[in-house]
Amino acid sequence: MSASKEMPKYRSHKEVWALKIANIEFVEETDATPRKAVITPEDVGYAKFSVDSEYLDKHKPQIGGYYVVYKGGYKSWSPADAFEDGYTRI
Does residue 4 lie in a domain region? Predict the structure, then answer.
């Protein structure tokens, strides 16, 4: 069955917190430590921070994209083009 018309379009109106990713250091899992990664933000003045294996498996972050936190605490990743096209810094 094929679609008979174009899908509805949506515009984002959400405010989010986000940092562009300059570097990702992957830490492999050991018996005592689960797999994680340390993200270095591109913006000056922000410390490196860790993300767990659940975040890595679900979002597959890449350098140059954005680490995004939504109201309510949900954490995600967005490619730079999509993020910069949909959000303006406030």
Answer: no
| Residue 40 and residue 47 in contact, taking contact as beta carbons nearer than 8 Å | no
pLDDT of residue 16: 96
Range of the domain at 74: 16-86
pLDDT of residue 61: 97
CATH label of the domain that carries residue 55:
2.40.50
3-state secondary structure of 76: strand
Q: Which helix (H) or strand (E) holds 84?
A: helix 80-86
- Residue 47: pLDDT band by 50, 70, 90 thresholds? very high
Structural domains of the chain, count:
1
Nearest one of 15, 7, 2 to 86, comparing CA atoms: 15
- The 3-state DSSP class for residue 46 equals coil
